[in-house]
Amino acid sequence: MPTIDAWIQHPTPAFLRDPMFATLRRWMGSGDIPDPIPLAFTLGALDKAGVDRALVSAWHGPQGPLLSNDFVASLVRQAPDRLVGIASVDLHNPLGAVRELRRCVQEHGFRGLRLLPWLWGLPPDDRRYYPLYVACIELGVPFCLQVGHAGPLRPSEPGRPIPYLDQVACDFPELVIVGGHIGYPWTTEMIALATKYPNVHIDTSAYKPSRFPPEFAAFLKGHGRRKVLFGSNWPMISPADCLAEVDALGLDEEAKRLFLHDNAARVFGI
Fold this sequence. Notes:
Blueprint: E1 4-8, H1 13-17, H2 22-28, H3 39-49, E2 53-57, E3 59-61, E4 64-67, H4 69-78, E5 83-86, H5 94-108, E6 113-115, H6 117-120, H7 130-139, E7 143-146, H8 161-171, E8 177-180, H9 187-196, E9 200-203, H10 214-221, E10 228-229, H11 239-243, H12 253-268
Helix pairs in contact: 5-7
């Protein structure tokens, strides 16, 4: 079945070695980090999983770019049939951030914007996000973010769906939103938002199906089948390991096709 992975990174050694990822490296059982890391490392993981396309994300935080937009654009140019770029921008410079997002979409063909509230220490209803929401609507691309607890050693509260993302969805009903990492431990809040708002979606990055809460698995199989996108969060989790557990969810053919491909194709215009 054709598969789109809604959230991956192609890491640099500096990215993987950042101290804030110490907990993730421990969970991954990472040993020596090669230098450099060729794109074949990521493409090989997609091949092993049978993933046809992947949304590859830039990272920008208060300290600057961790994975720059130009770096991501260079990856997409190397594998245009496999990779689709997702931008990240400087939230502390809203006007410059809007200009950078426009550049990424219009010049490089990026298909979304991703910001991590835990990285900035700012929930998504902070005023600094709002010009970017207008830009996303005008450019016709989704706004992607992390929802739920922070894996790195940072406070998790900015990732709580209600009240923060709830306010955004109220203020910008035309904004297409993709909340990654299922929202745990507030998964029921994220399900409530995806049920209430036509343009709110959830991706499953960072969670293997065996770790889905029962209510989330039921949502995916039932009335939420058009609201959930497959994601792995590579290299933190292998897409092959995630996909190996999909059949155990007991999805019917329609739900499986929507989950693995059609929802992401629609949301990101792929």
